[in-house]
Amino acid sequence: MYKRFFGGSHTVANSGSEAQPLSEWLTDRNTIAIKLTSRDITGATGLGAIFKKQFVIPLNTTGLSIYPDGNCYLLKEGQPAAGAGGLTPDFNLLLVKDGEITIRVSFTDMKSMDNYTVEAECLLSISVATNDASTTKDFWKKLFNFPGVLKVSDLRNFIAPLIKDNVRNFVAKEPIFAIHKVNRTNELTGDIMECLEPTLFDVGMRLNTVTEISFTSSEYSKEVTDAIHRENIKSFLGNVSQNAAIDSDHIPIEKAEEILLAAGNKVIVIDPRSGKDIRQYDFKEQLRSVRIQDTEDGNIILAGGKSSVYLMNRDKNNKPLAFHLPKDKYPKGGINSMALHKDCLYATHSEYGLARWNLANQMIPADILFQELTSINTTTRCASVSDDILYFVSGPNTYALKLQNKCYKPIEYVSNLNSPISAIATSPNKIFAGMESGEILYWEKDRPKKPSIILKLRDPIINIHLSNISSLPHILYSSMRYSVTARIIGQSIATSFEYNGTTLGIIDATSDIVCAIDTAGRNLIIWETSSADKPIATIDIRRFSEQPVLDICIKKKKIS
Amino acid sequence: MVTVNNSVGATAKLVDRKTAKLAEERFLERISANIFNANGVYSPLDKKLYDASDKNKICKVIDICSEKIKAQIKELAKTNLMALYDEMPKGNAHVYEIMHKELLGARKPKVIIAATTISPIADLLRYGYSAQQLSLAHIDNTKKVLMSNTGAFYYLCLFSPTGWDNISPNALSGSNFLIALTDITDGIFSTYFVEDDRWRSNALIFDLSTKEEKVEHIKRFVNNHTLELLMDELTEDFVANSLGYAINTIRDAFELMELEDDYIKIDRNSKPYRLTRIY
Predict the structure, then answer these.
(1) Domain limits of chain A?
(2) Topology of domain A237-558, per CATH?
(3) Cis omega before residue B272 (within 30°)?
(4) B70 interaction partners in chain A (CB closer than 8 Å)
(5) Residue B95: closest CA among chain A residues belongs to which residue?
(6) Distance (Å) from the alpha carbon of A194 to chain B's nearest alpha carbon
(7) What is the pLDDT of residues A75-96, one digit of tens each?
(8) How distant is the Cα of B271 from the closest Cα of chain A, in angstroms?
(9) ipTM, 2 decimals?
(10) Of the spans A288-292, A323-327, B163-167, which averages the highest pLDDT?
């Protein structure tokens, strides 16, 4: 049913649906063209018939007045569609919106070369060629030959079959990895334009650009997601590659005798089984690190302060001996790690680098070694001696210095990562390193330039340790998570040591116990390696010191 | 007054698509402006002058060759078809019907003034340019499309951006039509009218160059005919015969040149006036 309109209440007929006011048609982004009769726009009855109200082509539209004798006139915006003089006979008026129309055409049933179901989407920019009466007439005659309104969906239905074959053929020739979420617009644009342009030209439309052609395969996407998920799980579970495997013989079976904590200016010694403190040692300054080492002279506690290392022979109950770093700096941090070898004491400090003292000359400040290696990095950490080799890390690399041969050039184990190493653990043939960026990697000792990443976590690795647990070589690591994880090296079997969802930081372990300090540095949690589900002891450190624990060390006893 | 020029087909002009389209647009604009200014139109059939005011004038645009252009574009090009079409002159005919209602009877068109451009479409499409002069066959084809009303007299103005081939004056007039041929010479529209009394003032509708353009054209002509100037042979009649302009226009141009150039004077003692050079 056609309604008449003039003035502000223009209403036009819509095929098979309710009449649509012209203002609605103008603002509806889904419409392209509308067909009216002169009676619709001037009014044939009532006041409209008397005054012959003039209809003006609205803004951003073009009109084509079509007369019964076949003549067509192009009317630009602002031009009157009919004069008031009454000379103009009845005519039809086609109104077309100027400007570009974006058409999104989707195909869902394509098959790639490797038989994946592919969904393709083409984004086309087209417009009605309204600058010429002849082309606008083509549009009316060949495309819009029905009454009412031409919608974007009508145009999409017209275009889709035209390009479907091109897209299908393209997809059929490509393997899925080459098209899934890969921008191949440029390659397909030529074909689509060649196939679409003549038809659009026929119907008075202009193909401006093929904006985008995208291909997605939910089937392939799911496969990829599953694969990534599997990879993540493998990674999360610490699926250490078989190459990383080491013999259990390489890691000694050790028993924990004591746990030493560095808290404030104290070293607190705790019995791992009872959880009770055995003894406390006071030092002159706040401690950053603690180690314990058996030597020929006795059991020596090494305590690292801000710029000094303190040695205390427990067996002889001596007062701590202070070994100072050169006083040319005012360090913010402290000694990260210490190790004794024969008559030398080695310590690492992020601001100084690697320091060495001769135990016989306590008053002489430390020599800073390999400054050319350490000064370029912000961190120098870890110092451990094994088989007469001193291992230390600086920045992203690990260094091994043979002490016996008096070789003063360390071997550089390159990580090829940008992140600093936070912890290392050594076995006779491998060096394991935990990175601040979350990776755990290892080197064969004879291949210092070829690191292999065996694990990638989202959080920084804080500590790693190697332990022989139940005659299986384990790597234990902490990473600001709610658990300490112990993985069998070379397998994906893992054990989590947890305590009430507390985030855990510094750890140490032997074959029989695992101990960790929570990230606040307030609680020491001890588990037996045989029962990870429940700790055997939780010790509130505030009983002994108001300061948080900054380092932990287990006094280990090898069991033959 | 527009004089008859017999030099149809003198030179061919090489034009490209863009130039041809621009020339077509200018041609139709000027025709439209001239018809808008025409108050009365003479009909040789009834020997009457009809009122050509807006209320008695119906303007129609007849699409003569767009389908042909489109078909050829589709044959030639695979992409950028619409861009190619946009560049082409369209060859639409603008037809103005001067209506009149007798005391008893219906309103009928008495005089029909039509103007259209005929372009060498094939060359323009294929090569992008053309110098093909158009022949009588082109005129006949257009005549067939435009002249459908036997009761009206037709004044046709046909424009070719590439110029016209030697066309017999006999083909340009008939019992119910007169045809004027237009091209662009020296940058301005030149219209060639067959000698016929029935033109009357209607010829002015097809005179498409402005007076300023004509004066400039005459000045260029004089500058290019130094020998005639030195030999005192550059008379009004010589210029009129060469360019086909009215004597008044030529005299105005002469006077302007006399004012602008101290060494050029008009010899007003001779008839016709002539330009002379003094030292």
Answers:
(1) 11-97, 101-127+151-220, 237-558
(2) Methylamine Dehydrogenase; Chain H (2.130.10)
(3) yes
(4) 134, 138, 201-202
(5) A71
(6) 6
(7) 888 888 764 334 456 788 889 9
(8) 53
(9) 0.80
(10) A288-292
